[in-house]
Design goal:
This protein is an alpha/beta fold. The protein has a domain at about 25-220: 3-Layer(aba) Sandwich (Rossmann fold). About 60% of the residues lie in helices and about 10% in strands. The chain has 10 helices and 6 strands, in the order αβαββαβααβαβαααα. It has a 6-stranded mixed β-sheet with strand order 2-3-1-4-5-6, with helices on both faces. A hairpin with a 4-residue loop joins strand 2 and strand 3 (about 85).
């Protein structure tokens, strides 16, 4: 069982994180831009940066850096004719990166949730998706797109099996099946470099880009809805945190009351001891006088 001091220390940490998120939200100003903001979100090394390079036509010279180690530690953006694309740090790498990623996705009108095609969604991905859905409100089903990456490494049968598992998880944990696309950045890159239209088509990158274009008109409505939803979610979390803090304070007050009771009892004992010592000293003094 956790000690009261440990619980209070954890509450301080979580409250600090909530305050940081609140400051990010309060400082974020809504912009009525004609260009929707598209953010790539997902675990570290899911293929976010590679995907954005293909969507922004950085075929030979990558703009969004790709590496096997943690490369994106801050938000990086690139503006095209129709969109502003954001690359965010990998989720669950560290608390600071998560906060940066949350800041990035808070600015997004459309989120590409990138999942590496090795199996179904991990628990941490589901948790982030649930928070994402809450912040999008009624626009969540249209403006959150799950992108299954690195599909060129698997058979079509396996891709379909994993895709269905992911959609089933979404139905259970977020209440609907979002748009879900399996893409191959590698196929698109090779097809573009060698002018092989079949490879580019089978990559599904163009299909994904067309889907993004279909969401152009609703961008500002999403922006307003998300801002309101994020405020409501933060208020809910702060209320829960407040109750936890009040409960801990109550326990500390109980301890303080008990200590106060012990202190009063101790003071009483000390007072009685002093009286007794004074009485004993007087008796000893009287005895000494009699002996003299």
């Amino acid at each position: 069982m956790k000690s009261l001091d440990l619980i209070s220390a954890e509450l301080v940490d979580s409250s600090t994180l909530l305050c940081d998120q609140g400051n990010v939200l309060l400082n974020h100003k809504l912009k009525d831009s004609t260009k929707p903001v598209v953010a790539a979100w997902g675990l570290m090394n899911a293929g976010k940066s590679y995907l954005l390079n293909m969507l922004t036509q950085h075929i030979e010279n990558e703009y969004f850096k790709t590496n096997d180690f943690r490369e994106t530690a801050e938000i990086k953006k690139f503006e095209t004719e129709d969109f502003i694309f954001l690359d965010t740090p990998g989720l669950d790498a560290c608390a600071k990166d998560d906060l940066t990623a949350i800041d990035g996705v808070g600015k997004a009108d459309i989120v590409l949730f990138v999942h590496q095609l090795q199996g179904e969604l991990e628990a941490i991905e589901i948790e982030f998706l649930q928070n994402l859905v809450n912040s999008f409100g009624e626009h969540a089903s249209d403006n959150i797109i799950i992108v299954l990456s690195k599909v060129d490494k698997e058979s079509n049968d396996k891709i379909e099996v994993i895709k269905q598992k992911v959609l089933d998880q979404c139905e259970i944990y977020i209440g609907f099946e979002p748009q879900c696309m399996a893409v191959s950045n590698t196929f698109y890159k090779k097809g573009a470099e060698k002018n092989i239209q079949g490879l580019m088509k089978s990559s599904n990158i163009d299909v994904l880009h067309n889907t993004l274009e279909s969401l152009l008109e609703s961008a500002n409505d999403v922006r307003i809805e998300r801002h309101l939803q994020e405020k409501q979610q933060l208020i809910k979390k702060l209320k829960v945190e407040q109750k936890s803090i009040e409960h801990v304070l109550e326990q500390y007050n109980v301890k303080a009351s008990e200590l106060n009771g012990y202190a009063k009892s101790f003071n009483k004992d000390i007072t009685e001891l002093k009286v007794f010592m004074k009485k004993l000293s007087k008796e000893y003094y009287d005895l000494e006088l009699q002996r003299d």
